[in-house]
């Protein structure tokens, strides 16, 4: 589908559908709404909607459409990326701008059947940091969730003629962890957690790709963190490739997720729990939202 559909206002007049929805706006907030239809034009409940702030790469809100296919959210002013996805259908993405006191017209999006995406061109692809986010979500003292990300990293994807033989390598600067709270970030960098002075990097190296069908893959590999290496599997969705960007270079995109168990990587956190410092829950959700550029002799260097 054309990504511009998210800006299209719905109007069916006599059919009874409305072109906009009135919602109460909190002070200083704006709102947007979307109606999601299946390929037959019927309302689609349960479609996943993820809204990410473009400046911080943090997830601002996420949820599912109601039984009538609607999703509505109020947000602080800013620029956001919206992704709508459902099993067996091609995801839709678009950017939108939220202004205080403004409820955007309800947009109508029709998801199309997932087509077999053409695999990336064989060769080396480099992560584009300004358009890539490495995020995590962890429990905080057993109640609220802490959302964080790493701001410095590098990664490459080597696509082989046989996709199963392809390789991915990612190196993260552990000291670049940020959660929006300086005190907490410094604690995460300390010997109680990541111990960045002794272990400055977090490394992932793939071992094999396993195709699950359609655009779904499992990426098997090893993750080295805090001096410990463990096997991990990333649930990966390939989002396709396109010519576009700074110099219309060839790009591909993928979304990968994994659940990590903190006790697999460090004994210090166990010690903290024994002392009654229950700062982080037993599992951490990791998400890599990757956009990579095909490497050629004249591939431009992304701006910082």
Written description of the protein model:
The N terminus and C terminus are likely disordered. The longest helix is centred in the middle third of the chain and has 8 residues. The protein starts with 29 loop residues before the first strand and ends in a 10-residue tail after the last strand. The chain has 2 helices and 18 strands. It is mainly beta and 304 residues long. An 8-stranded antiparallel beta barrel has the order 8-11-12-14-15-16-17-18. Strands 3-2-5-6 form a 4-stranded antiparallel β-sheet, with no helix packed on it. This is YceI family protein.
Q: How large, in whole angstroms, is the Cα Rg?
A: 21 Å
Low-confidence stretches: 1-18, 273-278, 300-304
Give the H and E element order.
Answer: EEEEEEEEEEEEEHEEEEHE
Count of DSSP-assigned helices: 2
Distance between the termini: 31 Å
* Strand numbers in spatial order across the main sheet: 8-11-12-14-15-16-17-18
What average pLDDT do the residues reach? Answer: 82
Question: Strand fraction band?
Answer: over 45%
General shape: globular
For the biggest sheet, the summary is: 8 strands, antiparallel, barrel
Organism: Streptomyces nogalater
InterPro entries: CarboxyPept-like_regulatory (IPR008969), Lipid/polyisoprenoid-bd_YceI (IPR007372), TTHA0802/YceI-like_sf (IPR036761)
Protein name: YceI family protein
Domain Lipid/polyisoprenoid-binding YceI-like: 124-293
Key terms:
four-stranded antiparallel β-sheet; 18 strands; disordered C terminus; about 300 residues; globular; disordered N terminus; mainly beta; eight-stranded antiparallel β-barrel
């Amino acid at each position: 589908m054309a990504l511009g559909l998210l800006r299209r206002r719905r109007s069916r007049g006599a059919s009874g559908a409305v072109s906009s929805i009135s919602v109460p706006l909190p002070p200083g907030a704006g709102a947007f709404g979307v109606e999601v239809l299946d390929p037959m034009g019927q309302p689609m409940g349960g479609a996943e909607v993820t809204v990410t702030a473009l400046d911080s790469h943090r997830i601002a809100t996420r949820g599912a459409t109601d039984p009538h296919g609607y999703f509505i959210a109020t947000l602080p002013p800013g620029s956001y990326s919206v992704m709508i996805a459902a099993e067996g259908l091609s995801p839709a993405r678009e950017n939108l701008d939220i202004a205080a006191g403004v409820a955007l017209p309800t947009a109508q999006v029709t998801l199309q059947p997932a087509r077999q995406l053409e695999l990336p061109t064989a060769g080396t692809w480099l992560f584009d940091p300004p358009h890539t986010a490495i995020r995590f979500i962890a429990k905080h003292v057993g109640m609220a969730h802490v959302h964080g990300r790493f701001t410095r990293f590098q990664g490459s994807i080597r696509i082989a003629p046989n996709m199963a033989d392809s390789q991915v390598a990612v190196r993260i600067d552990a000291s670049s962890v940020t959660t929006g709270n300086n005190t907490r970030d410094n604690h995460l960098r300390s010997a109680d957690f990541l111990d960045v002075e002794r272990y400055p990097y977090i490394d992932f190296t793939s071992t094999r790709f396993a195709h699950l069908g359609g655009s779904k893959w499992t990426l098997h590999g090893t993750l080295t963190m805090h001096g410990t290496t463990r096997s991990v599997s990333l649930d990966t969705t390939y989002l396709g490739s396109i010519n576009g960007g700074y110099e219309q270079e060839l790009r591909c995109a993928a979304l990968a997720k994994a659940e990590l168990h903190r006790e697999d990587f460090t004994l210090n956190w166990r010690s903290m729990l024994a002392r009654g410092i229950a700062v982080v829950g037993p599992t951490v959700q990791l998400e890599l939202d990757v956009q990579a550029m095909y490497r050629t002799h004249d591939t431009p260097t992304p701006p910082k």
